[in-house]
Design a protein that fits this description.
The protein has about 260 residues and is mainly beta. Strands 1, 2, 4, 5, 6, 7, 9 and 10 form an eight-stranded antiparallel beta sheet that branches. Strands 11, 12, 13, 15 and 19 form a five-stranded antiparallel beta sheet that branches. Strands 16, 17, 18 and 20 form a four-stranded antiparallel beta sheet that branches. A hairpin with a 2-residue loop joins β9 and β10.
Length: about 260
């Protein structure tokens, strides 16, 4: 795991964030070089624990085994848990950056196999760490929706209880900061090209959207003639791999 950019981390996730799981688990590799754990980015070490063995069934802090906590400023902190015994290479107060190795993927604490448990907190609240596996910490990420009446609606922040759109008015395009997104054009009955980080918007102005895919975040949509659909955190060609129902207009988007 390299600093800020986790080596093929998206392919190595063995357990995702959510449903009671407070981080993401990144799997062990037989290539030892790929098991080195580096700091996500610049920060100061606030906790450093080593010398722990596997402790199945343990709870609380003991369940993390050997771990390192780093404060990155601007409210962001990271935790790297289940590190291999006697590999923790930093101590409290050390200043680190993305080239600083802090340990090696292991199986200390409450585990059933070797992996890295990676957590992110923002303002002392745990958030989904997946978007930050290959991106820097940004205090505010926004998204927008476009409709035929109000045009581009105001920006909405990720994780906010608000949403982009207006109930009863179909949206036809979206912008999403930093992440790849695409939409399904209801009139053309096809997925439109992927766009990323406001280099372009996803959609065809005037053509309602009936499906949305966004990589690396949890998202859901509201149907114009219905309610909120379940949260989605995957992107694929199955019914669970996008938000929406083909043939039914979407009038709001929410990202957390």
């Amino acid at each position: 795991m390299t600093g800020r950019i986790v080596n093929e981390a998206m392919k190595r996730i063995t357990q995702s964030y959510g449903n009671g799981h407070t981080g993401v688990d990144i799997g062990w590799r037989s290539n030892e070089a790929e098991n080195k754990v580096f700091a996500h980015s610049k920060g100061v070490v606030t906790a450093s624990v080593d010398g722990k063995d596997e402790m199945r069934g343990s709870r609380g802090m003991a369940s993390y085994g050997n771990y390192v906590d780093i404060d990155h400023g601007n409210g962001f902190k990271t935790r790297y848990a289940h590190l291999r015994k006697n590999t923790v290479a930093v101590k409290v107060g050390d200043k680190v950056n993305e080239s600083t190795q802090i340990g090696v993927i292991g199986e200390s604490g409450n585990v059933t196999g070797r992996h890295l448990h990676f957590e992110v907190t923002q303002n002392n609240t745990r958030i989904n760490p997946t978007p930050f596996l290959d991106k820097p910490f940004v205090s505010t990420l926004n998204y927008q929706a476009h409709d035929s009446v109000y045009k581009w609606n105001p920006n909405v922040s990720f994780g906010n209880s608000d949403y982009a759109g207006n109930f009863g008015i179909a949206i036809d395009a979206i912008y999403v900061d930093q992440y790849r997104a695409r939409v399904h054009d209801m009139k053309k009955n096809e997925w439109l090209p992927w766009v990323e980080n406001r280099n372009d918007y996803a959609g065809n102005l005037g053509n309602p959207i009936d499906g949305i895919q966004i990589e690396g975040v949890e998202y859901r949509v509201h149907l114009k003639k219905g309610g909120w659909l379940p949260w989605v955190n995957t992107v694929n060609n199955t019914p669970n791999g996008y938000a929406g129902i083909f043939g039914m207009e979407i009038d709001a988007l929410q990202i957390r």
